[in-house]
Specification:
seven-stranded mixed sheet, alpha/beta, 25% helix, FAD/NAD(P)-binding domain, 312 residues, 17 strands, 2 domains, five-stranded parallel sheet
């Protein structure tokens, strides 16, 4: 029996677990990706207290802090969740069932795929979603990043360390990175921005050879490339939450209040899976801390009937 089960083992989940354990809650963290998606980021310079470190280093620090308390961390994928008539939650993995008084969804999101011809056939053959993983494979090659967010800008800046030419292809009039990364883009001669343009097809037989554009660039609707990196946002992992009757918005993001509470008592959410506009590691961890405190209040104010663990 746990006071709080955290679903998701990224920085949001680890931060929430640490804080909940400080409040003397018994806590379990369940996740299939240790550290979450930030581990794919090579340069984190906007997390207070750390001038610069990698995403993996940040995740490792938060995990170590959580494990300084009696926190259980379970590697696995949550396959099902339900609530009984005594308001206990059953969180089910492939080989275990966790009984909990409260639950926090810190499940994050997955990359949104570019749905154009050629994508599926050339994935992992020049179509990539991770510059940190694949940039060295395209050293001295010409590549493109599809997207205009801060994440896309970071991908382009990393690729520029390896590639002499990096295009950023974005459908709107102006890319929208954080100001510091915008200035870095402006000062990087190897990066060229193509705006008001969509990729309509990825070209190539056994590998990426280029892309088709819906708005000609330099008089041509074809751009020759060796690789395409996709950074067009994400899809929240909220299906499990919906099973509990958790409200989501049109994007599938879990709707929370300022204290990370959902519409269902005892269920909280934080991080990339929720409906807050500004998604960063620091905001996710802060939302997780709010959730931990609210879980503490919920568990201590609610009267739970005793359940014999031998029957669980």
């Amino acid at each position: 029996m746990y006071d709080l089960v955290v679903i998701g083992s990224g920085v949001t989940g680890f931060g929430a677990a640490m804080y909940a354990a400080r409040l003397d809650l018994s806590v379990a963290v369940i996740g299939d990706v240790d550290g979450g998606t930030i581990t794919l980021t090579d340069d984190v310079a906007n997390y207070p207290g750390f001038i610069q470190l990698t995403g993996k280093e940040l995740a490792d620090n938060l995990k170590a802090h959580a494990l300084d308390y009696p926190v259980t961390i379970e590697t696995g994928l949550v396959e099902d969740i339900f609530r009984d008539d005594q308001d206990f939650f059953y969180v089910i993995t492939s080989n275990k069932t966790f009984l909990a008084k409260s639950v926090l969804f810190a499940t994050g999101m997955k990359e949104r795929e570019l749905e154009v011809p050629g994508h599926d056939e050339l994935r992992n053959k020049g179509v990539s979603y991770c510059a940190l993983c694949d940039a060295p494979l395209f050293k001295d090659k010409t590549v493109a990043v599809v997207g205009g967010s801060d994440s896309a800008a970071k991908e382009a800046l990393l690729l520029a360390k390896f590639c002499p030419k990096v295009y950023m292809i974005y459908r709107r009039k102006k890319i929208r990175p954080e100001p510091i990364n915008g200035r870095r883009i402006e000062n990087e001669p190897r990066i060229e921005i193509i705006t008001e343009t969509n990729v309509t097809e990825i070209l190539g037989d056994s590998r990426v050879e280029g892309v088709k554009l819906d708005n000609p660039h330099n008089g041509s609707d074809t751009l020759e490339l060796d690789a395409v990196f996709i950074a067009i946002g994400g899809i929240p992992f909220s299906d499990l939450a919906k099973k509990l009757g958790i409200e989501t918005n049109e994007k599938g993001e879990i709707i929370i209040d300022r204290s990370s509470r959902t519409n269902v008592d005892g269920v909280f959410a934080a991080g990339d899976v929720v409906d807050t506009e500004f998604k960063q590691a620091i905001t996710g961890v802060a939302e997780g801390v709010h959730a931990a405190y609210q879980a503490y209040n919920y568990v201590n104010e609610k009267e739970f009937a005793f359940i014999c663990e031998e029957n669980v």
